[in-house]
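[audit] Reproducing an earlier prediction to check determinism. Same input, same settings, fresh worker. If the tokens differ from the archived copy the diff job will pick it up downstream; this log only records the rerun itself.
[audit] input (492 residues):
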Amino acid sequence: MKKRFSFCVLVLLSIFSLYFASCASTSGLEGDSTSQEESSDKKTAKKKRVSRIKFDDEAYNQAAKNADFDTAYGMIESLGSKANLAKQLDKSLILFRTGFYQEADKNFVETTKGLDEAFTKSIVQGAATAVLNENLTEYSGSLYEFLLVDTFAALNAYKMGNLELSYSLLTRVYDKQKKYVSDYGELILHEDEKSKSDDYEEQKKSEAALAVIGVNFHAPYDIPKKLSAEQKDALIYKTSPLADYLQIVIGAQNGSYVDDFTVRELKSLVPQIETDSADLPSAKGRIEVLSLTGTVAQRKQHTDWLVFDLLNFGETISGACGYENALKFKFVWPEYEPQNNHVKVTRVSVQGEGASLSKSAVLLEDFDKAVQNDIDLKASKAAWRSVWRSTGKKAVGLAGIIAAIQADQSDGLFSMMAIIAGAQGLRALDKSETADIRQAQALPSKAYAAGFTLDPGTYTVTIEYSNGKKEVVENVKVLAKRPVLVESICAK
């Protein structure tokens, strides 16, 4: 029987080795730039019909990186009602970024409603651990998406010429901050305390199951470290400098009272920013220039393997994922993937009424940083969940196979059946172990701002970009005691 057992283990190992082995001047979908003087026909126009394209994760990610909004939009349309909140937000952002403001407004309303409901539900229920895969949970949006959806909806409303709607949406951002951010922060800061005992029990179960097959388990060397409460608090997205800036500018343009708190908060977040629009001299007006560049950084899956040689009683093999006589455990977590072709604003100029002024723009908000912080906040928890899922389920499954072999009285028939069935199940576990890298990908990468306090009159504004392109916006009318917002978008 002992020989038969050794033979069956060798067969099992053989089975394992098999299975582990551009700035355009148009505002259509082709371009990504808008001018200050949009025609009313364009604002209310419906987007041109885009052919539906079969959705593919890799192709969609590449389209987002390249600001290929035709392809990205076609893929979202092909998903229909199956599009998650991240894709719904992308759809709204694509419509906004390509100048279809009226249609974008309708999509923003629906997307905001979905994010509100899903985010509230996620806070009430807490952060549940997925049994097989992080992606099986309903996507509720990251905190920065939850707040920025109203910020970009407000900017979209401004482009439609609806100042009151724009300002009310910006006010809503602050209402949401008060209502949810503190609750979310408490959840994140204390989730380790709530789950510490559960994690400990899962660890013990995994270690015990692996011990049955002679494996002394240890965690991967590069697994993200658990964060302190202070580190977590620093990573939580609490407010948007872009929202603060827009509330000051649009509030002043709308004749609304500009809260001193908003001014102080913006200056604390972006010390170099000028907040002159909040308190203009009676004889002066102001041009505020907002430039949105690039597309936001993405997430990718980090995959690590822990490999054991069962022939040598559980000895760990370093960097040998292709080793034939090996038992492998797959661990995954989200990782930050920066954009390599970031477009910067190099210079902003105004000419008119005898004035010719030029200055560098200030980096108002880095949306890439929001993505990176969100990943850093979640990576450790996601990684440890993956460790316990992969080791626990696979170790228990393998221990069950060995127990069946040891008890076999059928001259190896039951053993072979157990090996084949078990190997299939363990292979499926590796395939199902994937990191949650879902996010909205049509957000810009950066927001830049520059402002000029001027005499009333008509001016031409020029925005120059690091890729050598520029946008010229003519006939910008400046009124006394009021700012006017000029917005430019350059994706690549």
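[audit] rerun output stored. Observation attached for the diff report: The CA atoms of residues 371 and 414 lie 51 Å apart.
[audit] end
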